[in-house]
Amino acid sequence: MPEKTKELSLRYPSPYEIVDGCLHKKVNEKNHTYSRKLCNFTPKIISEITLDDGAVDTKRLKLGGEHSSGRTLPEIEIAGAELASFNWLIERWGADCVLEPGTTVKDSVRHAIQLTAVDADKKTLFAVTGWKKIDDGWKYLLPNDSECDVKLPGKLSRYEKASEWSEQDLSTVWFMTDEFLFAPKEITLTLLAFTFLSPLNEFLHQANCEPKFVLFLLGHTGTRKSTLAALFLSFFGRFSASDLPLSFRDTANSIMHHAFSLKDVLTCIDDYHPGSRQEEAKLNATAQAVMRGYGDRIGKGRLKSDSSPMESRPPQGNAIVTAEFAPNIGESGTARYFPLELKSGDVNLENLSIFQREAENGTLRRCMFAYTEWIRQTFLKDDDTKKQFVKTLKQSFEFYRDEFMKSKIRCHGRVPENVAWLLIGMSFFLLFMESHEIISVEESRQTMDEFKNCVYELAKKQSNSIEQDRPSHVFIQKLYSLLESGQAVVIGRDNFDGYTPIGFIGYEDSDYFYLISDAAHKAVRKFCEEQGETFSISKNGLIKALAEEKLIETGDKNTKVIKVGTKTIRVIVLKKREANAIADMYG
Q1: pLDDT less than 50: residues of the chain
Q2: Which of 466, 453, 473 is nearest to 410 (CA)?
Q3: Is the Cα torsion angle 138, 143, 149, 154 positive or negative in sign?
Q4: What CATH code is carried by the domain that includes residue 581?
Q5: Domain boundary among 102, 126, 150
Q6: When you count CB atoms within 10 A of the terminal residue's CB, does the N or C end of the chain come out lower?
Q7: In this structure, are strands 22-29 and 16-19 parallel, antiparallel, or unpaired?
Q8: Would you state the pLDDT for residue 150?
Q9: Residue 504 and residue 407 share a domain
Q10: What sign has the CA pseudo-torsion 200, 202, 208, 212?
Q11: 490 in helix, strand or coil?
Q12: What pLDDT is stored for residue 66 in this prediction?
């Protein structure tokens, strides 16, 4: 009944009027004024919504009205750009809502509707999480915000902000690292560091050192990897192993679209587990898209209908990927993730259940609320404080990266950066706990030293994984497998009698393999395909990689001309000593 009264009180400004429940327009023709019927209903704008998706602002309109029969029209929401077309009218309000004939009728009804906007509610709806400067202050956005309206679709709506916290919440979280440890310390601490790194992404981005990796949680079925991921996501909402936000069953485009919306929070892309070779190729392509998206923080270039560029939409938060085994995505893909391996029995189910109950009760969300409020009040009070905060983050990143590089651990160029980001996450978590007197300065220092040792050891393992995925190392591993199985054959250089057997790819002596480049490259690529793996590097790219790593003898070119019998041929001269060392490393 109140809504009916509200509808009946609607008044349109001149030249529009309501006659018998229908929208009319006063028309003056040849000094004669009459009332022209436009439609048999009276529409209006109830609210004007500015939708901020983190890249662009778009307008949406909530419409309401009344049919001339007295029927209240349901409130509907349409894009602002749809208003003038009226393609929404029959679909949303029914065929009995009739526009009168005439070339100007639609434009007149649209005009009348827009004139009601002066009395409409105006609000902003955020379709993105994380830090945003609103008016003169910074706000950390999540659904259930008491001041800002944040709405995410589907399972993403499980992200939820707490509104209060207590010191007991913080103490409980600290116990996760100490008295009630539910997983090996290097796994628990790394997940915790990654979690508390996530709200720093906005300011690390401003410092030009935004995290560019994902955390890979590896383990066979039953190791509770999805359960662990859900527990740490519970710092940002209500999650369980069965309702994680993203999955490898989603399309790559869908995952990357949501990855942009999930700014400054942690998410999970669950269940890399191909069931067939065909599915493995598909999931590997998705994994490659995820690694490059998070590893480069560059969105796909797209054009609008007028050929002008659209706003880029790269991932803006951090992601955990759960998988039964690492995907076959090559050296560069492997360098974009940091692996944590769970083995059977690693998780203490009794202790895990304690923190699952705490997550259900909101303890973890309240701790994250306290953390983001601490960041806002401590580092974002004004522009000068924020600038110093960004500068400090940059300095911390460079310090931790350079300190790791001094350890002389042989690694891919990305590994020191991954270590630095994790150490930043842990350092801010510990500083936060210190500032609320949950832990002492000494406890903080001891934990930081312990975590540094853990993450350095994990980095060594990561470096070995990257080495194993180097195209040059893959080539040598597969080459040796082919030679040992007899699927490829090399002939003694000094014993060549002019006969070349099936599978022939070159020659050898005690120090070198003399490989015919086309034959050797083709044999390895075919072998990889038969095993459901990819070997996408070109022949010339492979030769260049072997030369850069000093695995082959080079002259004026990366290949050399040799004489075998009466023939002169150009070959790859692969050093046996170095090749044997690589084969033994993975053997």
Answers
A1: 1-8, 303
A2: 466
A3: positive
A4: 1.10.10
A5: 126
A6: N
A7: antiparallel
A8: 95
A9: no
A10: positive
A11: strand
A12: 96
> Is 208 strand, coil or helix?
coil
- Evaluate whether residue 377 is within a structural domain: yes
The model's pLDDT over 61-116, given as tens digits with 9 standing for 90+, comes to 999 999 999 999 999 999 999 999 999 999 999 999 999 999 999 999 999 999 99
Please give the backbone phi and psi of residue 131, each rounded to the nearest 5 degrees, phi first.
-75, 135
**Does the residue 132 lie in any domain?**
no
Q: What angle do CA 578, 572, 569 make, to 5 degrees?
A: 145
DSSP H stretches of helix in 335-382: 349-360, 363-379
Q: What is the DSSP string of 293-331?
A: HHHH--PPP-B-TTSPBPPP----SEEEEEESS----HH
Are 552 and 507 a contacting pair, CB within 8 Å?
no
Contact of 160 with 238, CB cutoff 8 Å:
yes
Same domain, 247 and 394: yes
Q: How many domains does the chain have?
A: 3
Residues 491 and 451 in one domain: no
Instruction: Write down the pLDDT at residue 3.
Output: 41
Identity of the amino acid at 277:
R
422 lies in the same domain as 511: no
Does 194 share its domain with 256? yes
pLDDT at position 468, please?
64
Extract the tokens encoding 505.
């790819």
Question: Same domain for 54 and 189?
Answer: no
Contacts of 480 (CB under 8 A, 6+ apart): 579, 583
- CA gap 18, 35 in Å, rounded: 10
Residue 543 makes CB contacts below 8 A (sequence gap 6+) with 517, 552, 558, 559, 572
Residues in the chain, overall count = 587
| CA distances from residue 80 to 59, 62, 66, 87, 280 in whole angstroms, order as listed | 5, 9, 20, 12, 42
Can you read off the two tokens belonging to residue 15? 């030249």
d(CA 45, CA 61): 7
274 within domain boundaries: yes
10: three-class secondary structure by DSSP = coil
Asked, for residue 131, whether it belongs to a domain, the answer is no
Mark which of 126, 155, 173 sits at the end of a domain.
Answer: 126
Q: Are 65 and 57 in contact (CB under 8 A)?
A: no
Whether residue 252 sits in one domain with residue 146? yes
| Cis status of the peptide bond prior to 74, with omega within 30 of 0 | no
CATH number of the domain that 149 lies in?
A: 3.40.50
Residue range(s) defining the domain that contains residue 564: 471-586
pLDDT at 332 (0 to 100)? 67
Torsion of CA 54, 56, 57, 63, to 10 degrees: -100
Distance, in Å, from the CA atom of 158 to the CA atom of 473, rounded to the nearest integer, reads: 44
Residue 436 and residue 295 in contact, taking contact as beta carbons nearer than 8 Å: no
419-444 pLDDT, tens digit per residue, is 999 999 999 999 999 999 999 999 99
Report whether 69 contacts 21 (CB < 8 A).
yes
Dihedral sign from CA coordinates of 273, 277, 283, 284: positive
pTM greater than 0.85: no
